[in-house]
Amino acid sequence: MNKKIKKILNKKNRSKLVSLTAYSKNIAKILDKHCDIILVGDSMANVLYGLKNTHTIELKNIIQHTQSVRQGVKNALLVVDMPKGTYKNSNIAKRNAKKIMKVSKCDAVKIESNNKNFNIIKNLVKAKIPVMGHIGFTPQFSSKFKVQGVTKAESKKLLNEAMLIEKAGAFSIVLECIESKSAKKITKRLTIPTIGIGSSKYCDGQILVTDDMLGLSGFYPKFVKKFINLSALIEKAVKKYTTEVKLNSFPSKKNILNGTRN
Ligand code: KIV
After folding, report:
1. Domain for residue 245, yes or no?
2. What is residue 259's predicted lDDT score, i.e. its pLDDT?
3. Is there a catalytic annotation at residue 154?
4. Ligand 1 atom index nearest CA of 41
5. What's the gap in Å between 209 CA and the centre of ligand 1?
6. What is the pLDDT of residues 68-91, one digit of tens each?
7. Which residues form the pocket of ligand 1, taking CB atoms under 6 Å from any ligand atom?
């Protein structure tokens, strides 16, 4: 088993797993100092490409961004989202996951559950491709945002789904927007770590979309905490630059190339 994955599994019930998304090298380099897992999420569809959902992001986009992220990641486990339609059956999934792993040099792939694709996970794992599962609100399969696992029946169904994903061989599982009692129950029951987003503090770790927690994306549902307002900071710098350009105080002598190597 990949050493980094072993390390992730060992943290269950010991220390919380820290995870964030990245789509490019410079951000990934900063995250890598602090995160256990860095995810190249298909959320790039909304965040980077301004698309209304994640459905049309292509494999080539995901691979290209992962190649950039890979350059900034040395320590964290690098996980890549398989885009919608790229894991329709085991053969298609294997072909695409192998391509992602080979070209981008990532450590694992993530696939969203539709409560039916357990065999796909099983066959990927059999082909030595580490898989992270994803249940609850799964944007590739559900268009309407809703908290999951609220009723007893829903909660039972989610627990069963999580257990089948673990049985299929996944090394961890994202719980997205799952009611806290239900997330707690799943986390207690599984031996693999759960990574929550909008699913309470009871998960083994947390993930957020980096642009959301930095205050860059403009998407701030209740479960997102803005840890900084980077939009405002960037605007402040851009305003300063604009003023200096207009006043002709930038570039100053300090910023002029004078023919020497500097
Ligand atoms: O695409 C993504 O960024 C994700 C996280 C929200 C878990 O799947």
Report:
1. no
2. 65
3. no
4. 1
5. 7
6. 999 999 999 999 999 999 999 999
7. 21, 39, 41-43, 81, 174, 197, 207, 209
Instruction: Write the CATH number for 63.
Output: 3.20.20.60
Residue with tokens 């964290």: 76
Structural domain span for residue 47: 3-230
Residue 202 lies in a domain: yes
How far apart CA 245 and CA 149 sit, in angstroms, is: 55
Q: What pTM was estimated for this model as a whole?
A: 0.96
Q: Enter the tokens of residue 64.
A: 């290209």
Instruction: Tell me how far apart the alpha carbons of residues 30 and 74 are, in angstroms, rounded to a whole number.
Output: 11
Q: Which two tokens stand for residue 210?
A: 């980096």
Measured distance CA(132)–CA(161) in Å, rounded: 14
Q: What is the mean pLDDT of residues 146-155?
A: 96
Residue 253 lies in a domain: no
- Look at residue 12 and tell me if it is in a domain: yes
Q: Annotated catalytic residue: which of 161, 166, 176, 179?
A: 176
The DSSP code sequence of 71-99 is TT-SSSEEEEEPPTTTTSSHHHHHHHHHH
* The pLDDT of residue 14 is above 90: yes
Q: How many CA atoms lie within 13 A of 181 on its CB side?
A: 7
- Rounded to the nearest whole angstrom, what is the distance from the C-alpha of residue 42 to the centroid of ligand 1? 6
Number of domains composing the chain: 1
Tokens, residue 44: 């790039």
Average pLDDT over residues 15-42: 98
